[in-house]
Amino acid sequence: MMTIKYLAMSLVLAGFSTTAMAQDGTKADVAAVKEIIKSNPADLDKQLKAYLGKNKKNADNLVDFGRAFYEVKDYDHAASMAAMALSAKKNAFGPAYLLLGDIAAMKDDPGAAAQNYEQAILFNREDPEPYRRYASVYRVVDPVGAVNKLEELRSVRPDFPVDALIAHINYLSNRYPEAIEAFEKVPADQMTKMDIIEYGFSAYVSQKYAQGINMLNRGLQLEPKNATLNRLAMYCYTESGQFDQALERADMMFNQIDKDSVKLNYRDYVYYGNALNGAKKHQEAIDVYKLALDQEFDSQDKRAGVIKQLADAYKGIGDFENALKYYDDYLTAVSSPSLNDFADLGRLYVQYASKLQGDAKTTNLQKADKIYAELAEKNPDALEYSLFWRGRVGTMLDPDASQGLAQPYYEQLWDIIVAKAEQDKSDVARLKESGNFLMVYYLKIKDDVEKSKVFATKLVEVDPTNETAAQIVAI
Prior knowledge:
Elements: H1 2-13, H2 27-39, H3 44-54, H4 59-71, H5 75-88, H6 94-106, H7 110-123, H8 128-138, H9 143-156, H10 162-172, H11 176-183, H12 193-205, H13 209-222, H14 227-239, H15 243-256, H16 266-278, H17 282-292, H18 300-316, H19 320-333, H20 339-353, H21 358-378, H22 383-397, H23 407-418, H24 425-445, H25 449-462, H26 467-474
Helix pairs in contact: 2-3, 2-4, 4-5, 4-6, 5-6, 6-7, 6-8, 7-8, 8-9, 9-10, 10-11, 10-12, 11-12, 12-13, 12-14, 13-14, 14-15, 14-16, 15-16, 16-17, 17-18, 18-19, 19-20, 20-21, 21-22, 22-23, 23-24, 24-25, 25-26
């Protein structure tokens, strides 16, 4: 008898009805109550009274009443229906706890929601819904605990596609590497479109672009004009340097997909511009970057970043005047310019100067020198970088070294590096450049053989292939 009793209970909990467990009320009552709730009359409670009395022992119908209230966001009435259902079943009715969990979730109370979902699981361990909903709300508190709950589902329902659920929960929790790992366990023929999109985004954020591209292309074979799939593929192709393929996706995004089905954002324009820039189509990139600047940005610094990329595109076509103009605009727009930003501006002036002659060349080199001088003033850690570039600019302003413009900077840099206990590759490279200049400068300009030998001797040590240094040492 005990076995039959529990079998019957399990059927009820699973939502089945049997003649052996006949209850008051009918499905027609559910339809009628739904219509009353939908019309929301002033005497709602009065109109419901007869139906509630007739169904007070029908837990299934009471939960259905509660679901109808839940759908119209009347959570108080919904909770009342769930409580009545639990009373009818002596607090042993999973669907009622599931409803209470949903209500708590909508009230932004994940703790209470999780507790009710736990109760729903207790009364029907093989129903996937309470496990799924538990994981969805509990991931905010404990993503790992949410995944562990889904592993419990796997133990009682090995036939259920748990890995896809685990991947989704990890995706929602920003645990992108874990999401990828779980998605990899889902059979290819069971991956939904949303699974593919979530996998693609996870791979993009995790910088696993090749994996993302492979998965996204599977989705694109099924839906070639899906905006989200094309967008993520464009991003991944651009980041991985496959600019031609990125431009194919961009063409689909910008020219072939119905504009009503895709809302382009500033990132789309930026990635399109980056792909064009990477493909050496700088003028087209300039046009797209300018369109990007017309879009709505979520921060001023991100907009400033596009201005910087626009400057780089102008540099790509050799238009240094516009490159410098937009780089100045970038430094004005960005909230906190970095030392690297100023260093890049200095290099831009140097590159521009290398294309010029006469006073124009001198003017741009002097601007670069001023920037490098200010770098060391702003941050003492940038001193070596500043000295190196001031020395290099000095050789461009004074090609025959007759004025010795580079000498003080290269010599100070030399002394700093030589004094180090250990030198890295960057130090050695700077030693070679500064030492070569100083060795020749003291020999030819200052006629100081002994001083020249000091630099030559060290150069032979760090660069045995330097024939000039070897000759000077041998004098």
